[in-house]
Design a protein that fits this description.
This protein has helices spanning 5-16, 20-29, 55-61, 65-73, 88-97; strands spanning 42-44, 47-49. It is mainly alpha-helical. Helix 1 packs antiparallel against helix 2, helix 3 runs antiparallel to helix 4 and helix 3 packs parallel to helix 5 (88-97).
C-alpha cells in the first residue's frame, strides 16, 4: 500500500514509542495507515518492528488489546504476515516467550 512517507514513519514512531493517542489520531486522519507495512526493520528505543510487520503485529506483540481492537476497526488484517511468515497472533505469542 502506497502512503506518504512522513505519515507512514509517524505511525511507526507512535507505535514503537507506545504513543497510543498519536496512533489513534493518525488513524483518524488516514485510516489506511492501519494496513501499512514496514519495508525494513524499524526500531525505536527498546521496540522493534521486523520487516513486513504491520501496525497490528506491533500492537499484538506489545499486548496492547485496545490498540489491537482500534487497528482492526480501521481495517488491519489479522492474517497479514511478516517476511518471516508470522501473523499478528504469532507476534503476540512470540513476544510472550521472550
Amino acid at each position: 500500500m502506497k502512503l506518504g512517507r512522513n505519515k507512514t514513519m509517524l505511525i511507526w514512531e507512535a507505535l514503537l514509542g507506545d504513543d497510543h493517542q498519536q496512533v489513534a489520531a493518525l488513524l483518524e486522519q488516514s485510516p489506511s495507515l492501519a494496513q501499512a507495512v514496514a519495508p525494513k526493520r524499524v526500531s525505536r528505543r527498546h521496540n522493534t518492528a521486523p520487516p513486513g510487520s504491520t501496525p497490528l503485529h506491533v500492537a499484538a506483540a506489545g499486548g496492547h488489546a485496545a490498540l489491537v481492537r482500534l487497528l482492526v476497526q480501521y481495517g488491519a488484517s489479522v492474517n497479514a504476515t511478516t517476511e518471516a511468515g508470522h501473523t499478528p497472533l504469532h507476534s503476540a505469542a512470540l513476544a510472550r516467550q521472550q
